[in-house]
Design brief:
Porin, 1 helix
Length: 307
């Protein structure tokens, strides 16, 4: 009982400090000229997004809302909210390694952010922080374990912080995803799963006004899942029409091996703001589990070829 409570308090302390810093930054952002905030027309907007399963992330589709709270000459303060329905994994191909995600559940993501333009509006820098949640139902396995019982529906939560620098051609973003509360939970009679601590940096460049290519590095960790290492990810996105974009991502790390994901996003409204990425609660289940549950249990070593 004591352990989870300490993790919760520490995570909310990180969020509280970040929110205070963002608020003070908005109040003190007086170093820009009064007419400098021209780089990004800002208005309320909404839309939908969908993505296929990736490295620890589900097949999903949902809605998003961007709400400007304050758009002044020196800063933009906003809230960016998403809610997704999560769907079952492809049959025989687990997104979390051994246990297949099953059924339909809900995930949410909220970001509170501040962006400031440079004096000549060529660059915009920003900070953001928020909270993400994910419910996950489980089904069978994809690795030769014939029977699992007690298939659970579990819920994970994480705090998130990010920093960004944006121009017409370049995107730089760093982020940290920090699970809290019960980060490790039993999924069924054989496996348990955990939400991953993830730290990453993405660099993107507009090859043309409609074509964006990016490359990213990330580090992920969860001791209970034997995950502790780095990964790389590349992404290409193309703007099909006004507000509509199609993207594909390819990632590799030792925990999930190679993963390919496709995503689609459409935005209504006049806003040209850049959306915040890397908002999923990423889950992994253990490669080595104890099938008997007692001190005399026999280790089961998964031979899942997807790793």
């Amino acid at each position: 009982m004591t352990g989870p409570r300490v993790r919760l308090n520490n995570s909310y302390r990180v969020l509280l400090i970040t929110f205070v810093f963002l608020s003070l930054s908005v109040a003190s952002a007086q170093d820009f000229t009064r007419d400098s905030f021209r780089a990004e027309p800002v208005a309320f907007s909404y839309g939908f997004q969908a993505a296929s399963q990736g490295a620890g992330t589900p097949n999903q589709a949902g809605i998003s809302v961007f709400i400007p709270l304050h758009a002044g000459a020196t800063s933009l303060v906003f809230i960016d909210v998403r809610a997704n329905a999560n769907f079952s994994d492809y049959s025989g191909y687990s997104s979390i390694i051994n246990t297949e995600v099953s059924g339909t559940t809900l995930s949410t993501s909220t970001r509170f952010g501040v962006r400031w333009p440079s004096a000549n509006s060529s660059w915009t820098v920003g900070l953001n922080a928020g909270y993400d949640s994910r419910s996950m139902s489980t089904g069978d396995t994809d690795n030769g374990v014939a029977v699992v019982t007690n298939k659970e529906t579990v819920r994970f939560e994480q705090a998130a912080v990010g920093i960004e620098a944006l121009s017409k051609r370049w995107n730089f973003s760093g982020y940290a995803l920090l699970p809290f509360n019960d980060v490790e939970k039993p999924l069924n009679s054989v496996y348990q799963g955990g939400a991953l601590d993830t730290y990453g940096l993405d660099v993107g460049r507009h090859i043309t006004p409609k074509l964006l290519a990016s490359v990213g590095y990330y580090y992920q960790e969860r001791a209970e899942e034997y995950v502790n290492g780095s990964g790389i990810r590349g992404r290409v996105a193309y703007q099909l029409s006004s507000g509509l974009s199609l993207g594909t991502s390819l990632s590799y790390d030792e925990a999930f091996d190679t993963r390919l994901s496709v995503d689609l996003m459409y935005r209504f409204g006049a806003s040209s703001h850049r959306t915040i990425a890397n908002r999923d609660v990423r889950v992994h289940d253990a490669d080595i589990i104890m099938t008997g549950g007692g001190s005399g249990s026999t280790p089961y070593v998964s031979n899942n070829p997807h790793r």
